[in-house]
């Protein structure tokens, strides 16, 4: 039998809608390409190797794993690893064009940048997500090593493989994302509504509800709590069908 294409279509549609909200060009001061904060703008003495760094933006949050010595591993959409193998070009700060084309091509790279290039002037929260995963926090060295092993080109998907999936895998052992949880809830509600409509449209459910109602009257006796559902539930199912 052919699989229902609607959930897959809903997945693609939802991902595109979320991309419009989640992916925005990096902040730029003059209008061309983004300019990072000056070196030394952030006090890295309070960061420890393996820390999860979180940079809240207006419409999204960017995540990374601190590796020590002013280095942060983070996942960013990037088209350049598909076009060239020149590491010197790839290691340059990701521009807005590279980021947007990476989103469109569903390609990304897990790269290592300075804290300044990673945060782009935004405020940095440290291990803010630990409160949600109190019993799952891995050792700091384990988190850093996981991040280092994953550095390089990777696929990109806002729902299935984004910067949040990367850091939660490194620090908590499982790739999780709030966007994926929202999507899963959306699909569950969609499928529940579809199933409910099928049940309502199936006239056999009217007969089944009548039989269940009569059985309840026989077992529990004639009372408003058994008689009224026996009458009204089949009636409304019949009307809806």
From TrEMBL:
The active site is at residue 163. Keywords: Acyltransferase, Membrane, Signal, Transferase, Transmembrane, Transmembrane helix. The keyword Kinase does not apply. Residues 1-28 form the signal peptide. One of its GO terms (molecular function) is phosphatidylcholine-retinol O-acyltransferase activity. Pfam families: LRAT. GO terms for biological process: retinol metabolic process; vitamin A metabolic process. InterPro entries: LRAT (IPR042288), LRAT_dom (IPR007053). PROSITE patterns: LRAT. Residues 52-179 form the LRAT domain. The keyword Aminoacyl-tRNA synthetase does not apply. The chain crosses the membrane at residues 172-193, 205-238. One of its GO terms (cellular component) is rough endoplasmic reticulum. This is LRAT acyltransferase. It comes from Chordeiles acutipennis. The gene is Lrat.
